[in-house]
Amino acid sequence: MDSERSTPAYDNIRSPASQERERSVKVEGSRGPVRSIGEILNADREGSTASSATGVTNPLADLTKAEIDAMPIRPYLDQTVLPVLLEGMKQLAKDRPQNPLEHLGLYLLNHSDTIGRSPGP
């Protein structure tokens, strides 16, 4: 399937909006590496430390609302929800609380100002 997508014929049938979204994603990708869940967990195992209390910064701070809306779901979640969620899950594994969902929910609420808030209008 990927070979089909690299053909000029495929490029001609895609809408201009979809081509623009792909270009914006490529630009976003060139701003820095997007870390996968496995990379984050491996880095944690290797003893790397986080740059802030939760280990995440807001990668959307420099993006406009239109750029954020144009992002595909996976990169959006990888850059917003997953970093904080992974840190919360690590905390769960370490603390082993009686009510893990409540503990995780409180963690996410307490760290929601770190990342994941969309910029104003």
What would you note in describing this structure?
Residues 1-56 are annotated as: Disordered. It holds the Pfam family Dpy-30. It is a single chain. The protein has helices at residues 2-5, 8-13, 16-30, 37-45, 65-70, 73-79, 81-95, 100-110. With 121 residues, the protein is mostly helical. It has one domain (2-110). The longest helix has 15 residues, at 16-30. The model is unreliable at 24-31 and 47-52 (pLDDT under 50).
Can you give keywords for this protein?
single chain; 121 residues; mainly alpha; nucleus; DPY30_SDC1_DD; Dpy-30_motif
Helical percent range? Answer: 55-70%
Content-based structural category: mainly alpha
How many alpha or pi helices? 8
Rounded radius of gyration (Å)? 18 Å
Number of separate strands: 0
Domain unit count: 1
Largest sheet: none
Strand content: under 5%
Q: Unreliable stretches, pLDDT < 50, 5 or more residues?
A: 24-31, 47-52
Distance between the termini: 38 Å
Provide mean pLDDT, rounded. 69
Characterize the overall form. Answer: elongated
- Give the ordered list of helices and strands: HHHHHHHH
Keywords: Nucleus
Biased composition (Basic and acidic residues): 19-29
Subcellular location: Nucleus
InterPro entries: Dpy-30_motif, DPY30_SDC1_DD
Brief digest:
This protein is mainly alpha-helical. The chain has helices at residues 2-5, 8-13, 16-30, 37-45, 65-70, 73-79, 81-95, 100-110.
